[in-house]
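Reader question, answered in our methods column.
A reader sent in the components of a multi-part assembly and asked whether the whole thing could be modeled at once rather than chain by chain. We filled in our standard form and ran it. Here is what they sent:
COMPLEX SIZE: two components
ENTRIES:
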Amino acid sequence: MGEVLIKAEGVSKKFAKDLKRSLYYGLVDMANGVMGKSKTRNLRKDEFWAVRDLNFEVRRGECLGLIGHNGAGKSTLLKMLNGLISPDEGTITMKGRIGALIELGAGFNTVLTGRENIYNNAAVIGFSREEIDANLKDIIAFSELEEFIDMPVKNYSSGMKVRLGFAIAAQLKPDILLIDEVLAVGDLGFVLKCFKKIDQLLPQTALIFVSHSMPMVARICNQIVLMDHGKTEYQGFDIPTGIGLYYNKFSTSENSVLFDDGSLEVTSFTLNVDENNTLKRGEDLVVVLNFTIKSSNVQLVPSVYLEFRDKEQRPIAGAIIKDKKVEIINNALRYTITIKNIPFSLGLYSIDLTVGNFETKEPILRINNFCSFQVESTTQMWVPIELDANFTIENYTV
Amino acid sequence: MLETRIYSNSNTYSILHILLSSIKGYKSSFYLAKQLAKRDIKAQYRQSLLGILWALIPVFINALVWILLQRSGAVKLTDTPIPYPVYVLIGTTIWSIFGECLAMPITTVNANIGIITKINFEKEALISLGFIKLLFNLLIKLGLIILVLSVYQILPSSSIFFFIPLLLLTMLFFVAIGTLLAPIGVLYADISRMIPIAMQLLMYTCPVLYVLPKEGFLRQIMMYNPLSYFIIDVRNTLTGFDVEHWFFWLGAFVVTGIMALLAMLVYRVSMPIITERMSA
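And here is the structure of the entire assembly that came back:
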């Protein structure tokens, strides 16, 4: 285990909601600061805790994922870790050189060329002149902007600016790296390149990663802090649980009807789940749908399409149900759909329902998030589908 | 051994400790300040045809107005010891330096608020940055003064050797006041609006455009206004006269020293709070 590089003990920070009052408190704090008096620790009028009593430590080689909804206090915490603002309570201890990928390209002047701005930005984030000169070639090569490096940054696209900014920051050899949602702008090739660089840095670095992209969090983090209104809601090394809790914050049971031409109605439906809305992995999923047909336009038995989404809202699987042989007799149809050996991994899944005309394929009814169910499994995986593998492991002689 | 930083809510550091860390801040951030000054100066002139002339135009116009007023006889002014255009041009040029120095800390902090709230660097760099830019503008203005002096064939005397030290002391005086005002001035826009107005008003209570009157109410005001002595003596060193108020300069030296230390202290303590309030 590496040494502890980041340590937060009881860290809290308060902010004022009202600008005028915030400025006034700033003035009071400054006066107290100059006089050597300490700040008041209680909440003053209009103040609230943006971050409340956070405790964690990150060792070299570890990555802590900081997740939570907008305004949960992630950025405030990151600013404190970066030393921009000081905590109102508690202590943060940071060991070693700090690199922050919070604002890429800070200090750029858009009138100047990319090459000139490399010097500006690098100086701002703490490079010495010698370091910049030594790394200039690597920076330009990493950014892949050789062709445009002598063009004013004004004419760069936002993706190009981020490329250049990251290329500069990536040359820092930090002991501690703070990353805020900055990599979202680049194209896929660049994002992959960034992750490769982060993977390279990780063994020597204690990393804090703020993101709303759970696949990215799952990919690099080994510890999670889930924040809600400034407080820790989950903290630990169990990544799937942390991410699951994050998703539960946004899970809604409400379905949304995207299209309905009025000729068909879902009268009832059932899923073969237990009282906790849960199914065991490997069991069959049985969906029973009862329809009433309300229009004579529907002559043939409509086709039904079920699409499964995981908690990331990624569509992961689908099933088509259609049969020409059945005739419509009394305008009430029951579909009993069995899906064999559900291979989904632990987590929440939702089903989108599409009912369509058998021949023309025109939609009759479309409902997103029609229903949802939980899959229970002994193993926790990030990916939505857990494959059953047959294997042998044996010794052999070379 | 890794450098360890501890962030907490304690103000138990001694004044000496804060001053030392401020000095360290100035030292370690000097390259950054130079780089940013280069950036600002380059960028300022790259998108401009007249370039560095813009540093002179406001001063020039102001002086021109007064030269015309005096020529036309619209205002009656006591005769100046040197040709009036020289008197008024040097006066307004030096006065403009005062104003720039005073406004510099607030202007620079405001111009860089984007990096202040995002990047952790020694904020002292901003004061150095502003100072370098002031010196650059000063060079341009000196060029104008030298030009005017040679056109009117005015030869400085040995007192010219005091020009640089006295001017630097004056600049430091105004930068220190500006830095002391900066924390409030960044939080509330009122201060930065007030500075140009106050400087305009103060200009008329100093011998910038006209000489110290022999008697009367205005003389009283000018005599009480310490800024008068700055302008009189700095102008004297340029135009071949002697420095008249050595006691004043001794006092100014002591006061500036104290204010500079105070400014370093206040700036160091208040910048984290500014960062907090500007990003909250």
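What stands out: The interface with chain A takes residues 2-12, 15, 31-32, 35-36, 39-40, 42-43, 46-47, 114-115, 117-121, 183-184, 187-188, 265-266, 269-270, 272-277, 279-280 of chain B (CB under 8 Å). Residues 21-279 of chain B form one domain.
Send us your own complexes using the same form.
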